[in-house]
């Protein structure tokens, strides 16, 4: 029996000042004056169109992702949140995160985002080394990054994440350690520490920059930084996510627990459990901002609808749940996938045999070895 899990709302804002050469997100260089008001109208129309899919359910988290949401003026964010709260039931403990590029502080005042209801920020810092930032094509230097974080703290934001990347072109282990040290000094509640990947269809994939650390060197950076973060009170709870106690990102946790999310905005993806028809729907919106602006609120704005078939569900579930150190409960697997635990018995036994997973009572958890080979463990659950 499929039971609808907690529901989140993802809102995609698709513009950036400049496209970074490593980035494959749906982000477009915004030229001239951006149509913020028209885009908010489109978001509200899009939400209205999808509302029947989530009637009666309450929303636990909202995440403005991008692109660069901090390009949006606070009154545009405010207008959207007011419209959303009059259409959806917001949970009392609602977490509202806004992604922020430190090079955009002139676009919105942090006080105003707070007044609009945003209670968590996520800064794309990447590194504190100005050479690294330049090679990554970032629009800010380390001084601006530190200033942006301080401005947010002065405005009363005590719950914020810093995004760092490692294994950067020409980065040494000492440089990666220094980045983590400087991030910790800013006292964020959460740090995301991503290994730079060369994504297809990016400038870096076409022309890889010189000096990308070898696999073993990248592994050393990960291990060393993880230990530094643990010493400073940031526990790893997912492959790339570290948090102070009780400060995990509720929005991302809901993805990793195979929760539901409504995806609003250009190219946004959603995943929804439809209890009445006992199915799981994946829906995504058309990608290009101009196309989305023209079609939002009508069926033509839907880029695609796909039902997740039963035989695909174990893999999709593991793709998320096995990223978490906490693993998952077998009862949770059954509720979120509508399958019996016997559907994964063979794969589980194999993973346990390899020493990748352990099962205690109802809970399945990745071992240290399993965490090193996350992709191989997940691949076990791909059924053809
Ligand atoms: C949507 S961006 C965050 C906000 C804003 N766009 C920015 O970059 O400042 C999400 C994060 O994903 C990470 N990221 C993006 N592309 C990546 C890649 N190719 N490899 C690893 N991490 C990447 C970066 O740390 C980035 O901050
Ligand atoms: S600012 Fe963020 S979303 Fe925009 S191109 Fe750079 S990494 Fe991608």
Q: What is the topological layout?
A:
Blueprint: E1 7-13, E2 15-16, E3 28-29, H1 36-50, E4 58-66, H2 74-87, E5 89-100, H3 110-116, E6 120-126, H4 130-135, H5 142-154, E7 160-166, H6 173-185, E8 190-195, H7 203-206, H8 215-231, E9 235-238, E10 241-243, H9 250-256, E11 260-264, E12 269-274, E13 279-285, H10 289-295, E14 302-307, H11 313-321, E15 328-329, H12 330-337, H13 345-353, E16 357-360, E17 363-366, H14 368-372, H15 374-379
Parallel strand pairs: 1-4, 1-11, 2-3, 4-5, 5-6, 6-7, 7-8
Antiparallel strand pairs: 8-10, 9-10, 12-13, 13-14, 15-17, 16-17
Cofactor: [4Fe-4S] cluster
Protein name: Heme chaperone HemW
GO molecular function: 4 iron, 4 sulfur cluster binding; coproporphyrinogen oxidase activity; metal ion binding
Rg from alpha-carbon coordinates: 21 Å
Small molecules (ligands, ions, cofactors) in the structure: S-adenosylmethionine, iron/sulfur cluster
Number of domains: 2
What's the tally of helices? 15
Number of strands: 17
- What's the story with the biggest beta sheet? 9 strands, mixed
What would the average pLDDT be, to the nearest integer? 97
Poorly predicted runs of 5 or more residues: none
The CA-CA distance between the termini, in Å, is: 23 Å
Derived structural class: alpha/beta
- Based on the coordinates given, report the CATH architecture of the largest domain: Alpha-Beta Barrel
What is the helix content? 25-40%
Strand percentage, roughly? 15-25%
Spell out the CATH superfamily of the largest domain. Answer: Aldolase class I
